[in-house]
Design goal:
- It is a single chain.
- The chain is an alpha/beta fold.
- The longest helix has 24 residues.
- It is elongated.
- The chain contains 12 helices and 12 strands.
- The chain has 3 domains: about 80 residues, Winged helix-like DNA-binding domain superfamily/Winged helix DNA-binding domain (Arc Repressor Mutant, subunit A, Orthogonal Bundle), CATH 1.10.10.10; about 100 residues, D-Maltodextrin-Binding Protein, domain 2 (3-Layer(aba) Sandwich); about 90 residues, Periplasmic binding protein-like II (D-Maltodextrin-Binding Protein, domain 2).
Length: about 290
C-alpha cells in the first residue's frame, strides 16, 4: 500500500508537470521528490511519468492513479478537519497579502495564527492583487488576501472586509470650497495604486472626462510611499483612510470632501481547491473573524 506522503508527492508532480515546482510546493528538495516517485513506481511495478528534458507527463497508468490519489488525499483532509484539534494541524502555508491588509489587521492575524495553530508556519509574500492572483492560479501560493474575488472554477473565495477609498491631501493645502469639484482635483497629481490594479483603472476611468485635461496619475506599488508623497505635498492620494489613522489624528493629512464616487476596496481570502487543502480553510475562517471584528 503506497504511503500517503508518496501519493501527495505524486499528485503535485502531476499537477505542476515538474519535479522542481513540486519540491517548492511541498517545501522539500527536488532529489527527495524524485526519490519518492521512483520508490512509488518500483512499489507499483510501472512507470507513472514520461520524463522529457524540461517537463513530465502522466502515463496512462499514472492518470489512473491520480484519481485514486486525489480521493485519498481528500479523505485524509476531511478526517483531520473532523477529528483533529487545531493544535494538531501543521505545515507551511504560503500566504500572499495585499499591502492594505498589512497596514490594517495582518499583525493581529499572525498573532492569532501562532496561538491557535502553533504547528502552522506562514511564509508571507506582500504584492499587488494581480500578481497574487496569478501566483494562486499556478499554485505558487496556498492562499491570498487580495482584491477579489478570483474568478477561476477551482478557486474558493471568502469575503473578508471592505474599505472605502477617499481623496487625501496634506492638511495645509487649500483646494477651495467643499465639496471639491473634479476639475479642481485634477489640477494636482493624483497618487494611487499601480497601473495594473483595479483601483487605478477605476480611478483613471472616473477622472477621464472629455471636457477636462488628461489627469496626471502617479502610480506606486508601495502604500507607505504613497502616504509619504502625500505628506510631502506632491499631490492628492486616493487611498483607504483606514490605513492612515495616525496621520488623520495628528492633522498631518485630511480627507477631501468631494462628490466624486469611487467603489470600495473589497478583499477576499482566496484559495485553490486542492485535495490536500487541510490547513488553508481553517486559517481563512480565522482571517474572516479578525477582518470583520
Amino acid at each position: 500500500m503506497p504511503e500517503i506522503r508518496s501519493l501527495e508527492v505524486f499528485y503535485w508532480v502531476a499537477q505542476l508537470n515538474s519535479f522542481r515546482r513540486a519540491a517548492e510546493r511541498l517545501n522539500t528538495t527536488q532529489p527527495a521528490v524524485s526519490q519518492r516517485v521512483a520508490a512509488l513506481e518500483t512499489e507499483l511495478g510501472l512507470r507513472l511519468f514520461d520524463r522529457a528534458a524540461r517537463s513530465v507527463s502522466l502515463t496512462p497508468k499514472g492518470r489512473e492513479l491520480l484519481d485514486y490519489a486525489e480521493r485519498m488525499l481528500r479523505l485524509r483532509a476531511d478526517m483531520m478537519r473532523a477529528v483533529a484539534a487545531p493544535a494538531a494541524l501543521s505545515g507551511l502555508m504560503r500566504l500572499g497579502v495585499s499591502e492594505t491588509i498589512v497596514h490594517t489587521w495582518l499583525a493581529k492575524f499572525i498573532e492569532r495564527v501562532n496561538s491557535t495553530f502553533p504547528g502552522i508556519t506562514l511564509d508571507i509574500v506582500v504584492d499587488v492583487s494581480p500578481n497574487l492572483r496569478d501566483a494562486l492560479v499556478v499554485h505558487e501560493l496556498d492562499m491570498a488576501f487580495l482584491l477579489g474575488p478570483v474568478s477561476q472554477p477551482n478557486m474558493t473565495n471568502y469575503d473578508l472586509c471592505r474599505y472605502p477609498l477617499a481623496f487625501v491631501v496634506r492638511s495645509d493645502i487649500d483646494l477651495g470650497p467643499e465639496p471639491v469639484p473634479l476639475a479642481r482635483l485634477t489640477e494636482m497629481p493624483i497618487i494611487t495604486f499601480p497601473k495594473t490594479t483595479r483601483p487605478y483603472l477605476t480611478l483613471r476611468d472616473t477622472l477621464s472626462r472629455a471636457e477636462l485635461p488628461a489627469p496626471r496619475i502617479f502610480s506606486n506599488s508601495s502604500l507607505s510611499t504613497i502616504v509619504r508623497m502625500t505628506e510631502d505635498g506632491i499631490g492628492i492620494s486616493v487611498i483607504p483612510p483606514v490605513v492612515i489613522p495616525r496621520e488623520l489624528a495628528t492633522g498631518a493629512l485630511r480627507i477631501v470632501r468631494t462628490d466624486v464616487k469611487l467603489p470600495d476596496l473589497a478583499f477576499t481570502a482566496s484559495l485553490p481547491l486542492t485535495p490536500d487543502g487541510l490547513i488553508a480553510d481553517p486559517v481563512a475562517q480565522l482571517a474572516r473573524e479578525i477582518a470583520q471584528a
